[in-house]
Give the backbone structure.
Amino acid sequence: MAWRYCYRDVLPFTAMVSMECVNVGLNTLFKAATLQGMSYHVFIVYAYAIAALVLLPAPFFSYRSRVLPPLTFSILCKIGLLGLIGSSSQIMGYTGINLSSPTLASAISNLTPAFTFILAIFFRMEKLACRKASSQAKVLGTFVSIAGAFLVTLYKGHPIFMLSSPTVPLAQPQPLHSSNSNWAIGGLFLTAEYILVPLWYIVQTQIMKEYPAELTVVFFYNLCVSLVAAVVGLIAERDSSAWRVRPNIALASIVCSGLFGSCMNNTVHTWALRLKGPVFVAMFKPLSIAIAVAMGVMFLGDTLYLGSLIGATIISIGFYTVMWGKAKEEIGEDSEGGSLESAQAAQKVPLLQKHKNDLV
């Protein structure tokens, strides 16, 4: 019982929080690389190609380590669809940021749990019973987390904790609104990205039900994303010099993102989707904003503002409300399953006893 609790509850939670911390670091490294002129088209191709190369032996070992259903053409087509969704979301996201601002991207990304929750109900991956406390907690917690994430993104407030000012002035964050006429187009690209991300969760969850081999699925997914992004990149990047990566921060960003992002992060997300479902994974999106604020204060000497503190608290309340609702729902399902098995056993015993009496 203790091992089952650790595997199904403690381990997924710890793994997802760890992956969000890794994502914050990788995003910081990526921003530093793009400031030196690295193309995001080139970045996507190389990072996913490295991940596919690392996971190349995965199909062989996965097949040998346990009994798996055959890797049919239907499953490969679904993985190809997953790769198309993933590459499209990546390209749209980076294009939207270039046309608008990272602040707008952070604001729109907060809608991921809501989009995921709606799609999961539509595809019957989540249960919604309005009169049950577990369903009410999931709905309420989702919207509370979104509200807290928007508060962190849009409201600054008074400084609470401030370290000594750095000698080199830091660049000011870009505002949510921009006078650039491309801002609205950028917002549309970002909205499309964060509609595709929940769809990615749904398709990936369905694939894992048919073929529960995380490393194999992630290998083919990374290969598909790299190929699709390469086609788009060759069209978008006409300058051949953009494809030459020198041994600097650009190379470090590509290698780290390939190993810890496209490879490890996607594997953990796939495993968590198979184990806990799409809503559980999507709920960590607003939590990543609170993690970014905390890591910035602890490791980068950023100033802690009132809006960040209040928003992070609201995110935590909403997050744990959803987790409580899902835990209560799972306990209810286990109890119903146990009651059903007991009822079936109770029905079988008299039949066996009657058969024995007849023989006597």
